[in-house]
Fold each of these.
Amino acid sequence: MRGRATSLRRRLTWTLIGGAAVLAVLFYLVVRTYAQQIAQQGQDRILEASLTSLMDAAVVREGQVEVDVPYAAFAMLDTAADDRVFYAIHQGAELLTGYDGLVDGPFVAMARPAFDTVGFAGIDVRLAQLTRVLPASPAPVMLTVSVAQTRDSLAGTLWAISVNAALFGGAFFVLAAGMALWTSRSTMRPLSQMAEAVARRGPRDLRPVVRAVPTELSPLVTSLNSLMTRLSASLTQSETFIAEAAHRVRTPLATVRTHAEATLMRVDRDENRAALRSMIRAIDESSRAAGQLLDHAMVTFRGDQMERSAVDLVGICRELVDRLTPVAEMKDLELVLRADGPVVVQADPILIQNAVRNLIDNALKYSPPEGAVRIEVQADPVAVIVCDEGAGFPEAQIAELSQRFQRGANAGDTVGSGLGLTIAQDVAEAHGGRLELVNVDRGGACATLYL
Amino acid sequence: MRNFIFVIAWLWASALSAAELEDRQIFQGEGALTLRVLSSTDTDIFAPILEGFMARNPTVSVDYAVAASADIVTLIAECPDCFDVVISSAMDLQLKLANDGLARRLPGLVRTGGTQWRQSVFGFTQEPATIVVNRAAFAGRDMPTTRQALIEILRAEPDHFRGRLGTYDVRLSGLGYLYATQDARTSETFWRLMEVFGNLNAQLYCCSGDMIDDLASGELYVAYNVLGSYTQTRPETLDKLAIITPEDFATTMMRTALVLDTTDVGETAEALVRYLTSGAWAMQERPGFPLPSIDPADAQALDVVSLDPGLLVYLDRLKRALFLEAWGSALLR
C-alpha cells in the first residue's frame, strides 16, 4: 500500500460531522434571515397602518391641509422597547407639522407606501412614506405623510431569535456529531469483525469465508475467497507435484540400488568396490530424501483433512521398534521402548506413525555406534519421547531446526534431507500439540512429540 | 439632535417669549457637587423630598429651579446644558424630550413597564385630576360626584355659580393641557362641561395652587381638574374645601423625572431618580414624601395616562391648534 494510510471510519466520521456543522450554520443563517424579514415586515405593517390613519385624517379646507391626528396613529407604535417615533407631514414641499429634516422633497405621488431604513438624528430609523394627491378646488393638493420609528424592539426580537436559533443549531450539531460517531462505528463494525475472523485463522486454513457480510463487502469477500481457492489449489498442486516426483524417482532408484549391489558382489578390484559403495550410499540418501518428501507431502495433505480415530500410541511405537530393529542392529544400536500400558488417544494413526518413525530415524542417524535409542510413551500429558546419545542439537539453532530443509550445523556427512523434524512438528501441530527439542546434560538429545 | 427639535418648541418659544423661572433655591450640601433640577413642582412641596435625598447623599447640593411645565420645554431647548434632571407633571412634554433624544437612558434602573418609558422617563407619583369645591358654597346642595352631576348642578343654578368657576388655562399650563386632552379623549362629557363653564364665565388659572387659594378664600366655588394632592400640603384649607375624585373617570397623571443626556453628573442625577422612584414604589408613607405614591395595582388602570407615543399626538402643531380652537370656542365667549 502506497501513500498515507487513511481510515475509512475517520473519514466517514469527519464527513458526517462536517456535514452536520455546515447544516447547523445554514440553519442558523436561514432562520435569522427569515426572522429578520418577518420582523421587518411586522414593523412595516404597523408603520403603514399609522401612515394610513394619518392620511385618512387629512382634509383640505380652502386649499389648506388640516390633519386631526388620531390618537391611535402614534399609540399603535408603542413597542416593548419603547421605540422613538418621528413623523412629518408635508403639503407640497412645505413642512406642515412634525420633524424637520426627516424627509426631503421633491415628492412624487405613489400608489403604495415606500419603506426604507435611513439615518435620522444620528440613529437608524425605519421610515414609511406615502405621497397622495388630494382632489381640491381650485387645485389638487399633494400631501406627503412620513412616519419613522427606531429599531430597538426589532433588534431585541432578532437577538432573541438569533440566540434561540444558535442554541437549536448547536444542539442539532452536537446530536448529529454523536450520531455520526455512532453511525461510523456501527458501519465499520462488520469490516473489523471480518478482518478479525480472517486474522484468527491458522496459517493453513484456506477455507472460503462463509459468514454473512454487508452487500458492500461481498465483492471483497468474493475476491478473497477466489484468491484463497486459487492459493489452496496451487499449494495442493505443488505438494502433489513433489509427491509424484519423489515417487517417480524412488522406484528407479531401488532398481539402480539392486543392480549396484549385485554388481558389488561381482567386482573384485578395491577402487571399483569403493566407487560402488559410495554410489549405493548416494542412492540411499536420494531414496531417503524422496521418502521424506513423500512423507511430508502426505502429512501436509492429511493434516488438512485429518481422520481421527482411537489410536494406541504404545502399539504404534512397538510396531515401529520391531520394524526398525534390523536397521538399528546394522549400526550396533539398541532400540528400547518404555511404556506402562496402552495410551489411547484420538488421532490420525498414519500421521502419528510417520512422525514417530521420522523421530526414531533421526535418532538412529545421529547416534554413535554401541549406543541406545530410547523411546518412551507418556500418558499425562500425552507424549512420545525419543532420546539418543549423539552430539545433541546445536543450541543456537534449536528454534529453526524444525523448519523445512533445515539441518543442524553439526550434521556433518550424515545422510539427511532436513525434513524429519518438520514432519514431526507438522503432525504435532495438526493434532493441536507441539514438538519440543532439548539437549540432555549427560550427552544426547530428546525430541518430545506432545499431542 | 437640536436641529430637529420639535416644531412646537419654537411655537411655544415665540408665543411665550417670557419663558422664565418662577423660583430658584439652592439646597446646600457638604460637598462641591451640585445637581441642577428643573421642576414644575413648587419648592415648598418638593423641599421635604430633596431633604430626604440629601440626607442620604450629604455631599450633594441641589439647585432647584421651578418653571411652568410648558416653559420647561422652552428652557431646555434654549439651554440644554443648564440642567441635569427634569421633573414635570406634563407627561407628554417629558416623553417628547425623551423621544427627541434629550434624555439619558438609565439601564440600571429597573421599574415595571407602565411606569417608565425607554428607561428614560420614570413616573414616581400618581395624581388624579379632581373637582375641588368650596364647602360653604354647597351648603344645602348635593356634592357632585360625576361630571354629569356637576353639569346638572351648574345648569340648575347658573346665577349662583356664574363667575365662580375655575379651571386651567390650557394655553399656559402643560399639565392643564394634558388633563384636558386626556379628558377629551376619554369622553364627550368634557366638552359639554366646558361649554357650561364657558357660559358661566369660568376663570382661567395657570396653576393648581392659585385655584386652591381662591377656593379657600371663597372667590371660587368649583374648580375643575385641580391636583387634589396640592390641597394635602395646605392643611389650613382642608376644612373649607371638599376634594372630589370623579366617579365616571378620574384622569390620573404620573409625575415623571428624567436625566438630561448632556449632564456631567449622571450618577448623582440617576441617584435622585432612583430615590424618587423607590420612594414611590416602596408604598411606605415615609415622612417627608408629600406626594401620592404609585399604586402598583392601579398603575395599569385605564384612567392612568399611559407613557406611550400616543402622548405625542396632542403636541402636534396642527392637532394642538385644532384642540385649542375647540377649547376656545367652548370656553371663551
Amino acid sequence: MKQLCKFSFSTLVYTFLYAPIIVLILYSFNNAKYTLNWQGFTLRWYQLLLHDNQLLRTVGHSFILASLATLIALGIGTLAAVSAYRYRYRGQTLIYTLIIILILAPDIMIGIGLLLFYNINHISLGFISLLLAHITFCIPFVMLTLNSRLQTLDYSVFEAAKDLGASEWTLLKKIALPLLSPALISAALLCFTLSFDDVIISYFVSGPSFQILPLKIYAMMRAGVAPEINALSTLLLIFTFIIVTTATLLQKRP
Amino acid sequence: MNQRSAFKSLTIGTLVFWLIVFELFPIAMIVLVSFSTANSSTLYTYHFSLDAYRQLFNPIYIHVLLRSVKTASITTVFCLLIGYPFAYILSRSKLRWKNLLFLFVIIPFWTSSLIRTYAMIAILKSKGIINSVLLHWGVIDHPLQVLFSNTAVIIGLVYNLLPFMIIPLYSNLEKLDYKLIEAAQDLGSNTWRTFFKIIIPMTKAGIIAGCILVFLPAMTIFYIPEILGGAKSLLMGNLIQDQFLFALNWPLGAASCVVLIVILLLTLGIFWRASRSNHRGALL
C-alpha cells in the first residue's frame, strides 16, 4: 500500500514535468499553423526549419555563445576551485558568500545590474556583453560542482606528488584534472544548458547585433509560436539527450 | 615557493576580480541608481533623491508588490509540498535507479523554458487537454477557465520552479544519516515525531535554499505571467522589465530591484544560520 502510494505520487510528478514536453513534440508534427488543435501528421515544419536561415543563424549564435561561456567559466572556475581546495587564503568566506549570492540572486537582478554596469562603462550591448554575463552566471555552478567532487578526493595524493617534486602545473595537469574529469563534464553540461536557455539575463544585456535563440523565441511568442520552433525544440532535445546519455555512460560514477 | 604563490594568486585573483567587477559592482550600481533622479535624455542623473522610493509607495506598485509576494508564497508552498515528499522518495529509492530517476528531473531543463510554458497553453486552455479529459469523464459540466488567470500563472510557476526545490532537498536528504531515524524509531518515536523532530531539522538548509530558489524567481520570471496570465496577473518582474525597457524610469526599476535585494539578504541570513547548524554546501 505504502509502495503503491509512493509509486503513484512520483508518476504524477513526472507526468506534470513531462506533459508540456510531450505536447510540444506532438505539435511539431501537427499539420496546422495557427491552432493548437490536432490536424494530422506532417513533417512540414522540419522542412521549413531547414530552410529558415535566419532562425538557424540565431541557433548558431547561441551555440557559439554557450560554448565560449562554458569554456571560459570552466577555466576560471576550475583553477579557482582547485586552488581553494589546496590553499587557505584570506577572504575565503567572502568569496563563498559572493558565489552563493550569485546562485540565489534572481536572474532579473543580475541582468539589471549588468545592464547598468555596461551602460556606465559604455560597453555596447551585443556579443561581448552577452558573453561576459553568461560567464558570470556560469562560474558559481562550476565552483559548486567541482567543490563537491574535490571534497571526496584524498588530499594525500596531492602531497605525495608535491613531495616527489611535481610543479603546480604538473600537479594540475596530471592529478587534479584527471581526477576531476567526471565533475568537469557535468559542470560543462550544466553551463552549456544554462547559457543556451537563458532568457531573462540575456534579455537585458543583448542588442540587435547578435540575436540568440531564446530571445528570438521570446520575440516570436507575441505572434504565437510558429510550429517550426516546436520542431527545433524537438531536435535540440534529442541532441542534448544523446550528448548527456553518452557523457553519463562515459563517466563511471564513484 | 615562489611558483606556488604565483599560481595561488593568479587563480584566486582572477575569480575575485571577476566577482567584484561583474557581481559586486553591478549590484552596487542598482542601489546607486535607485537613489538617483530620472532623466529623460540620459535615463538617470546621479543626484541623490528618494523619488524612486516615493513612487514605489504609490498604491499601484504596492498592489503589484503584494500580489507578487502572495503569488510567490503560494508557488513556494506548492513546490515544497510536492517537492519534499518527491525528493524523499527519490533519495530512498534503490541505488541502481537513483541517478536515473534524478536525471529525469533534470531532462525538462534541456528544452527552453519559454517553449515548455507556451506548450502549457494547449494543456490548460478551455478546449485543452485537461478540460477534454475532465469533461469526458464527467467530472465537470463546463470547461474550467484556467488559462489567463492567476491560477494558470501559479501552475506555470510551480512547473518551472519545482526542480529548483527538488535539487537542494534531494542533495540534503541524500546525505541524511538514516541510522538516526532508526535510532529514533527504536527508542519509540512514531513516524510523525521522527519526521518533525529529526528529518525536518536535519534538512533545514535544503528547505531554505529551495525556498529562496523558488520564491524570488517566482516574483520575477516575467515571461510566465505574460504567456499564461491575464492583464491582472502581472508581477514584480513585469514591472521592472517595463521600467527599464519601455517606461524608461530606471531609478524606479532599480528601486524595485532593491526590494528584491533586501528580500534576498534577509533570507540569506536565515539560510546562513541554518546551514551553520548542520553542514555547509547544502546547495548542490
